[in-house]
Amino acid sequence: MQVTLTAKVKLTPTPEQASLLLTTIRSIKQALNHTSRFSFEHQVATPFALHKQLYRPLRTTFGLRSQMAQSVIKTVAAKYRSMKSNGVTGTLAVFRKPEYDLVYNRDYSIKKDQFSLNTLEGRVKVPFNPNGMERFFDGTWDFGTAKLVVKKGKFFLHIPMTKEMEEPTDDRRIRNIVGIDLGINFLATTYDSDRKTAFYNGRQVKTRRARYAQARKSLQQRQTPSARRRLKATGNRENRWMSDVNHQLSKALVTRAGKDSLLVLEDLSGVRGKTEKVRLQDRYVSVSWAFRQLRQMIEYKAALHQCKVIAVDPAYTSQTCPKCLKPDKANRIKKIHTFRCKKCGYTTNDDRVGAMNLRYKGTEYLSK
Ligand SMILES: [Zn+2]
């Protein structure tokens, strides 16, 4: 599995370097907007045509170096291409944020504790804060096109890092099996090989999502342009927040499981039974993209920790007795959040049962 993540490195430039970086980033922003306007007004969109008309002026007027001018042209052409494919035409593309794209080994490289960055005045060697970054510099990661970003006077390099991660191909290496049950009151309940249960409280998430739903509803009823704009903004904010929740949750789950674990999730893509469908509706995962995203994040982080993820058929995981394995709908007493086996009398918290049964399915998977 190929893993890509973005390393955010804080640069610690000298005052002279900072001022040079700022000039560079500003010139590039101006050049981007100039190029965008030219493309818009003259209906010139291909990199080739833009290059012909703008390469010289970009170099002389904005003082860009050759690679930067080419990069600006490419960025603008790509921006209009993607707008067009999203059905947006007749709109001027505006570049608001001060950002600068740097191609690895062409515009930037790394040596020991310094980044060598291409600026308007050639290469400068800028020190950075290596805290927590060490693992990326062991030669096993591929560096992608980085973005130089300035925020409140501080400089950051956002670098996409790619690595081919190997799943534990040998299942005998697995020393911990964790059942992960996703829900509402608890975002996740896990049960592991030490017979330990962990609950990840979801009450705050539930409340906040209800608030978002309420806001969406009232905005939807008003059909004004400003309501539509606010609806979109609210949706974006909710998505960003949800991504953040998923990020933290997946990180917590994988960190707790530890290296060489088997993580067992429910496969909800093939849910067919009617009872299970009803159950699905009242889940944290009822927003399907949020669930898909969480799954992806868990798989990602699992790969980074040499863990394996499997998704199993969720049928009866909430109503089967984890002790005697007898399934019975009546085992689950929702009202008092209790599971009581009709056959053997085993009693426990009903949220724990799903995780226990998922873990059991993991042991079955390993013994095959
Ligand atoms: Zn039982």
Describe the structure in your own words.
This protein has helices at 15-42, 47-61, 66-85, 203-221, 225-257, 274-281, 288-304, 350-367, and strands at residues 2-11, 99-102, 108-111, 114-119, 122-129, 142-143, 146-151, 154-164, 176-182, 186-191, 197-201, 261-266, 308-312, 332-333, 338-340, 347-349. It has 368 residues and is of the alpha+beta class. It folds into two domains: 2-164, no CATH class; 171-367, 2-Layer Sandwich (Nucleotidyltransferase, domain 5). Strands 1, 2, 3, 4, 5, 6, 7 and 8 form an eight-stranded antiparallel sheet that branches. β9 (176-182) and β10 (186-191) form a beta hairpin. The chain is elongated and about 85 Å long. The structure holds zinc ion. Zinc ion binds at residues 321, 323-324, 326, 341, 343-344, 346. Keywords: DNA recombination, DNA-binding, Transposition.
Q: What is the name of the CATH topology of the largest domain?
A: Nucleotidyltransferase, domain 5
- Describe the biggest sheet? 8 strands, antiparallel
How would you state the average pLDDT, rounded?
87
Ligands, deduplicated: zinc ion
Tally the helices.
Answer: 8
Structural class: alpha+beta
- Rg on CA atoms, Å: 26 Å
Q: What is the count of structural domains? A: 2
Query: Percentage of helical residues?
Result: 40-55%
Shape: elongated
Unreliable sequence segments = 271-286
Please name the CATH architecture of the largest domain.
2-Layer Sandwich
CATH class term of the largest domain? Alpha Beta
Number of strands: 16
Q: Distance N terminus to C terminus?
A: 23 Å
SSE pattern: EHHHEEEEEEEEEEHHEHHEEEEH
Strand proportion = 15-25%
